[in-house]
Amino acid sequence: MEYFLQQLINGLTLGAVYGLIAIGYTMVYGIIGMINFAHGEIYMIGSFIALICFSILGLAGVASVPLAILVVLLIAVLFTAAYGWAVERLAYRPLRGSFRLAPLISAIGMSIFLQNYVQLSQGARVKAMEPLVTGGFVLTEKAGFQVTLSYMQIIIMAVTVILMAGFSLLISLSPLGRAQRACEQDPKMAALLGVDVDRTVSMTFVLGAGLAAVAGVLTTLQYGVIDFFIGFLVGLKAFTAAVLGGIGSLPGAMLGGILIGLVEAFWAAYFSAEYKDVAAFSILVLVLIFRPTGLLGRPEVEKV
Amino acid sequence: MTSTELGKRFGEDSICLGAMIKDAGIAALVTLVLAMPLFGARLSDGGGGELQFRPWWVVIAVVTVFAGRLAIILWFTMRKPDITARLPLFDLTVARLSRHKRLLFAGFLFAVAILPLLPIADRWVVDLITLVMIYVMLGWGLNIVVGLAGLLDLGYVAFYAVGAYSYTLLAIHFDLSFWACLPLAGAMAALFGVLLGFPVLRLRGDYLAIVTLGFGEMVRIILINWSTLTGGSEGIAGIPGPTFFGLRFTANPASGETAFHQFLGIPFGSIHKLIFLYYIILILALLTHLFSERIRRLPVGRAWEALREDEIASRSLGLNPVLVKLSAFGLGAMFAGFAGAFFATRQGFINPSSFTFIESAIILAIVVLGGMGSQVGVICAAIVLILLPELAREFAEFRMLLFGGAMVAIMVWRPRGLLTQRVPSVRLGLWPPRAARDNSP
Prior knowledge:
heterodimer, A: mainly alpha, B: mainly alpha, two-stranded antiparallel ribbon, 70% helix, 2% strand, disordered N terminus
């Protein structure tokens, strides 16, 4: 039971991170109907920028940990968002209106490009940092097994909940959110009614990249080890989460993320750690076969 | 354009020049923002949190982008008047050449066929072209799936792996020869393709892509972890090479056995085996080519193309989409299986790291860059993507960077690939339509 509880906490934390990245996939898919394959790489770049910022702050002698985290969150989000914007501008916008698979192939190329860009500029070896936030609460203790909720896990969940709340408000209340929903329903009609579709799509990429950057900062703090290849698997799992929750649906992305996180944590704990990735992909396949619209998605009607 | 004309243009369009500089300035500014964190500071490997600052990298990047952007704008502005005359030059050349398609192809084939017998062919050349031909064959195999049937398969390397491991395990555990295993490896891969394809082929294009990608990763993870069968990440060594009608290519054959060089009464040369492998892959690749050239004219091939162009229309005309797609998927997988078996026998050693996603991406890039559905395009793309990086060893570390960049660039500039062939293989009436023919030179 204690073991179960501990895995539940670990799974929720992991799932929160997947959820943050999955939102980027789901928003982009909702608006322009493409899988942004390079989104995992954006997350990876976010992690690198976070680590660089932490190092700079460490060199500058900033002692206050909360301040450091806040500053790094802000800087990483800004720079990563710039990457998200540039990727859309260079690789996807010229392809709007091209044949269906063109953006996906371009995105795969972009993903390879970004991976190697980071590998060349930062080196292929693993980068690590000392944990900044240590310690936590011991919830229960029985027979020598402690169930702990670390401060870092609390931070991850708190940041995720705050961001999700803010994001829901942004989508439902702000003019940008309204424009996004309009473009999602019918980009041509939205353009006719004065919505700047290009700008809305750009902003979607910027927001998605920002959330991925937050996920990057949080995982860097939590696990402390990054390399240029982390984006691939995490991106794939976050995409799985987006599909599981129903692609195009924001609460669905969060729900899917948490489910994938839980499955992975429990699978690694009770079955085998080697096959946890296989478990996540099997879920993707099963969901697509039996419920292609996901848990909270709307069925897609193709009109001829 | 003479210098006075250039000056006049700039004199007239000084506002335009200002706009150009502004545009290039914006691009440079964006580059500054993008380059600052990752170029400006390099993290030390491992822990420690030390940074190495490299302001010059940022400066160089910004200046390069500014100059490059300006050059591109100037180039496009200056050649604007004759843009209609210049643009189709490449296509025109291709069109002119393709009139003598058969002749060119025959000549090319002849050159490839006699190449290993020429004095310039040392071990390195033969081996390199063998490698290129493996990718040509994989490209042609994937072309059936992606180019003809329009199914984006990002896990093609899984079938390549299945073929390679099937051959290896059969050859090592059951002592079967390469030639007995080759069809089995192909059949195994095709079976895998059908089994994996069956549940997922109802999915829409990009979902299918991600699911096949997931399959590819699953196969690799299983290969790594099922170490009792596959040797885990260490892989399997000592895979037997192919035999020439039972004759082995070895310097000192086992007693009672005749080796290839003894049979012919020539001195042993390690290049014999390489040349033999060269001809095997040449024949395998040609078989793949002939197969796909023929099958695209058969009803099933036409069904693939119809489904690619419009799934709903084909379904309403009575095609069973799952069966049609499944056949393409299985046949494509079969050729990957053949190539995999060949790869295993050539290397003599396999491990899961030969079958990563990047491999799938390379094969896909060959198909896409060549122009989906074009057989010749695959050859050109394989030469560009495999041969050039091998020749330019000093740029090896930039290889994948350029590779990813090229994929994006080709999609942006020529979304249909370098050589496009998206006309139906079989058609009614005249083609191209009379009006189009009369206009063409």
